[in-house]
Design brief:
The chain is an alpha/beta fold. It contains eleven helices and ten strands. The protein folds into two domains: 208 residues, Spore Coat Polysaccharide Biosynthesis Protein SpsA, Chain A (Alpha-Beta Complex), CATH 3.90.550.10; 112 residues, no CATH class. The longest helix is centred in the C-terminal third of the chain and has 23 residues.
Length: 340
């Protein structure tokens, strides 16, 4: 009987697969106790062939699912969840790797505490394996069992969805699935799931190695990054549909203002060579229609001045030339070069 299922979406990951899989099959939890589900997302390199070689080596523990159409990570993760046969599910990205005792520690804490999710810290690493910095978006106590109290809800893991080990029952019973064929699918899935998590434990060690790849889709700002816009609208609609909006209006509104508008706008200004003027105007309209009084949100009132400056543009009737001037001014204020 396997103890945990780990889902690994793979797209053109041939260069990184061996490093990732080595860290999985050599877990101290034991490869015989793990179900590794690799979903090849219509790769155009030799990813599928390499996965098949690993499957042949560990036929009792590795399952390779091949997709003929690229559906991005959300589709691959949904497929993996449906194939998973154990009570606990984790995720790893194909260009990352994990410490050899990560899943042993996570599983032990899951069993001894009964937590809905056990998470770890992550660290950004370069090609040499050198740690660049530890990521920790979680603001609560580490190495402590925690429970949701009153009408509060879980604030989220210390890293992305890959930094947690989840009770599969929690996912299935609440019908929580990743958006498909869009990037930023984890922004949606993790946020919805947080409202259902009633207990958690965050291990205070950076056991997940998140590879900083300067050529990856997450570091190269292109039009695909505008996927975060429909993702945030979908998330907002889903939270309203599930009845969470009325209970947590201010935080949900601020999350939308942050991720849909000023967070996205910052990325566009700093990283995109050509400004998508029509999209910028769409962003203005959407924010003001969804939240006509967003400036008075208690969390918005506390943001930094540079974030307020970005938000101020939502109210302005800006021409293309206005946007160009604003971008030039913004980059100079940050002492940043114009994107090439």
């Amino acid at each position: 009987m396997k103890l945990i299922s780990v889902i690994i979406p793979c797209y053109n990951a041939e260069k990184y697969l061996d490093r990732c899989i080595d860290s999985l099959v050599n877990q101290t939890l034991g490869i015989d106790n793990m179900e590794l589900i690799f979903v090849n997302d219509a790769s155009t390199d030799a990813t599928f062939e390499k996965l098949c070689q690993w499957e042949t080596k560990y036929p009792e523990s590795i399952l390779v699912v091949n997709c003929e159409r690229n559906g991005k990570q959300g589709t691959a993760r949904n497929i993996g969840i449906r194939y998973a046969t154990t009570d606990y599910v984790g995720f790893v990205d194909a260009d990352d790797w994990i410490d050899l005792n990560m899943y042993q520690k996570m599983y032990d804490k899951t069993i001894c505490t009964g937590a809905d999710v056990v998470g770890v810290l992550s660290q950004r690493v370069d090609d040499t394996g050198q740690a660049l910095y530890v990521e920790n978006a979680y603001k609560g106590p580490l190495d402590t069992f925690c429970e949701v109290t009153d009408d509060d809800y879980f604030r989220g893991l210390a890293g992305g969805v890959w930094s947690g080990l989840y009770k599969k029952q929690l996912i299935l019973e609440n019908d929580i699935w990743f958006p498909e064929r869009l990037l930023y699918e984890d922004n949606y899935w993790g946020h919805i799931l947080n409202y259902y998590i009633k207990s958690w434990y965050i291990i205070g060690e950076p056991l997940y190695n998140y590879y900083f790849n300067p050529n990856s889709t997450t570091t190269q700002m292109g039009l695909q990054h505008l996927d975060r816009l429909p993702i945030e609208v979908m998330k907002l609609e889903e939270l309203k549909k599930r009845g969470f909006y009325d209970k947590d209006k201010d935080r949900i509104e601020f999350n939308f203002v942050h991720l849909y508008y000023f967070g996205t706008l910052h990325g566009i200004l700093v990283k995109m060579k050509e400004l998508p003027y029509d999209t910028l105007r769409q962003m203005q309209r959407e924010l003001c229609e969804q939240f006509p009084d967003f400036e008075n949100n208690p969390y918005v009132l506390k943001v930094a001045d540079w974030q307020k400056a970005l938000l101020h543009t939502a109210r302005l009737n800006m021409t293309n030339e206005d946007w160009d001037y604003f971008r030039d001014t913004y980059l100079k204020a940050w002492n940043l070069p114009h994107p090439i």
